[in-house]
Fold this sequence. Notes:
2 domains, Rossmann fold, alpha/beta, six-stranded parallel beta sheet, nine-stranded mixed beta sheet, Dihydrodipicolinate Reductase, domain 2
Amino acid sequence: MDLQTLAESFDRRDWQELEETDDPVRFAMVGVGWWTREQAMPAVANAELCETTVLVSGDTETAADVAAASETVEHAISYDAFHDGKASDAYDAVYVVTPNALHLPFVETAAELDKAILCEKPMEATIERAERMVEVVEEHDATLMIAYRMQTEPAVRRAKEFVDDGLVGEPIFVNGNMTEPILDLVPDPDQWRLDGELSGGCAVMDIGLYPLNTARYLLDADPERVRGTVASVTPEFDDVPDEHAAFQLDFPGPTFAVCTASQNAHMASHIEVVGTQGRIRIEPAFYPWDDRALTIERGDTSFDVAFEQADQMEEEFEYFSHCLLTGEEPHPDGEHGLTDIRAIKAVYEASERGETVEL
Length: 359
């Protein structure tokens, strides 16, 4: 069978058994910022396996306004009310999308309430708090998935099939980039991403982990050592170490991943695997509002792979809900997310020390 024939056979939801259900997974959205309103809630509204029934916010007036515009939301409650267990009978799972350093307490409460948890990446602001999150879900036998939506993105899943099938030979390099002008996207100099205590970092923590984690997923491997350089050069980024970042991850093989990220550059994203016999590239890759393009090269053959574009957030929520409804364990779990936090912090350490950091 030739390469193009192989590329034409693809089931974007290879994990799916259920297509609909009479009892969808009911979500409480914890944090009602622009990402929840413009990305997460519309995705769930279009999904077959889940619905939003509770909004949890520090601004209950805004939450109430958003709830009033929703056909499924039954309750809009405060953070304190959530921790007190209010409306806990109205949801089955929580989606935690607060600033990074505030994830842990909501995961703790959700686990205590016997709720499944979908926690936005990165899972926390420090290694210690991420480790505690893993401990908490183990203590309560709770289900935790870290929201790496690229792992349910059809283009990335298709690329992983090509890598697994050996169509590029042995992987040698992974090149990934994600850059954006964050102050154009969110025109607030006081936003939490620019607050080092709330974010735990900036470019690497917020967007550099997209190429990092996607490299891990495509290679089905974890990095062994890290080297890198970060810099903040404009006043708006004085409270974080990394307005811009470039770092290298050494995987077994040896295979090397070179990643770049910036919160103050032209918006762009790609991920590419170069092997001994071919190359796979996705560009654009990481922004959910872009149509992805997947290209494969092997020998003298090069072509764009056709696949159905999908809402990345809808795919993520449907996958997580499908796992809950069928009793499957979702991936990526807390231990997987913890590996990323350790690698991210190693990038900062490597830059500060000017040395390679072993993981």
